[in-house]
Every structure is written in C-alpha cells, then in structure tokens.
Target: Cell division ATP-binding protein FtsE
Amino acid sequence: MIKLSNVTMQYPKSTRPALSDLSFEIDKGEFAFLIGPSGSGKSTFFRLLLKEDKPTSGDIQVGDFQVNTLRNREVPKLRQSIGCVFQDFRLLQQKNVADNVAFALEVIGKPASTIREAVPETLEYVGLEGKAERMPHELSGGEMQRVAIARAIVNRPALLLADEPTGNLDPETSEGIVEVLDRVNRRGTTVVMATHDSHIVDSMRRRVLEFSGGKLVRNDERGVYGIG
Ligand SMILES: Nc1ncnc2c1ncn2[C@@H]1O[C@H](COP(=O)(O)OP(=O)(O)OP(=O)(O)O)[C@@H](O)[C@H]1O
Model:
C-alpha cells in the first residue's frame, strides 16, 4: 500500500534532513503505528504521501500511485484515495455534523443521491446516530473526532492517515476513537496512526514504525511502544 525507497526530505534552509534515507513498506490492510519524539518526521512523512511536499530524493508509492512522478492533474485522485484525521479535528464550525461529512463528498462532485445515503450510514458507523443536526460546538471532543473520522472515510479511501487523533482526548475517549479506527481497518482500509499514546500501541499490538531524527529506528510487526 505504501512503499518508500531511500526517501530523504531536506527542507530548504534547514541544516539536517527531516527524513533521512527511509525505506520501508506498509502492506494493504495493515494497521500501523508511527511513533517517535516531536520533530522526528512523522508529519513530514504524511505530507510526502499526500504530495503536499516533494522529497529531495527517493521514491514513494501509495497504492497504485507513483507519487514522485505523478502529474499535477492526477494529484486530486491520489488525495481522494487518502482520508486524513488530525489532533485538532478541523471541522467546519458553521456546518452541522451531517453537512461536515457531506461536504467531503460535495467537493469531489458526488451526486446528491449518493450523499443522502452515505452520510447517515457513515455517521451510524462511527457511533454518531442521532447527532446529525448538532453543530460542532455542541459536541464533546470524542464526538468531534468521530465526525472527523466519518468525513475522512465517507468516500471509502484505501488509506487513512491519523496524525495524533487522540492527542486532545482523555484515555477513555481515546479508546473509543481507536475502536472506530480499528473497525475501519477491519473493513479493509489501511490505517497509519501517529501517536504518543503508549497504552494504545501496547493494547493493539500492530506494526510499530519508530522514527528518531528522521530515521526509521524500529519496524516491529506486532510491536509495543517501548522496546518489547
Ligand atoms: N516547513 C518546514 N520547513 C523547515 N523545516 C521543517 C518544516 N516542517 C518540519 N520541519 C522540520 O522537520 C523535522 C520533522 O518535523 P515533523 O513535523 O515532520 O515532525 P513530527 O515527528 O511530526 O513532530 P510532532 O510529533 O511534533 O508532530 C523537524 O526538525 C522540523 O523542525
């Protein structure tokens, strides 16, 4: 699903690369955790997958897309195949829950009939039945993140990137969010989650990729947060 070959990313004006000669693969259908201290390169990795930045050298493959050589007009197709969830939810504050999710389909030109069907189905899937009319400010943090997940998956992406999705949530709420991500993964979506939450990583025992200073220092198939 994801294949990096000797990927180096040096931002202009920075003295050391944010990612340094990275090579690894994440298979289709996997749930992988990305761990490592702040500044170790996790967000940079996500940006490269989305072609929001270009690596200085190396090759990146995401699904059927050769990201490096992808033409500009093909970039929207790549991005449509990747759902994204962030620590700060990034909901549209003026739209209600259903409209936040519907918007993701509207901008890619899906017909109204598809949207009418997919939105309630997805809200139920993430545990938000009965909340469709609520505004974001009327939701708890956990509910806001469920909306963000619904928005990210409503188009059934092959890959879901979650950048510290539980970073603003208490442990119990975080567990619920990870359960939703696990369900999405079991339905066939590859999930990559950057996290600092050792409990979640230890309870899931999935692939653990550890970054340090832009290098991959650990790649365990059924890993734990600390060295297991
Ligand atoms: N736009 C940029 N320009 C220059 N340097 C950058 C830029 N974005 C990130 N960096 C640098 O690249 C390195 C990796 O940063 P990145 O944001 O990928 O780390 P991270 O592991 O996601 O950190 P966090 O856990 O805090 O989100 C850091 O040294 C950072 O300062």
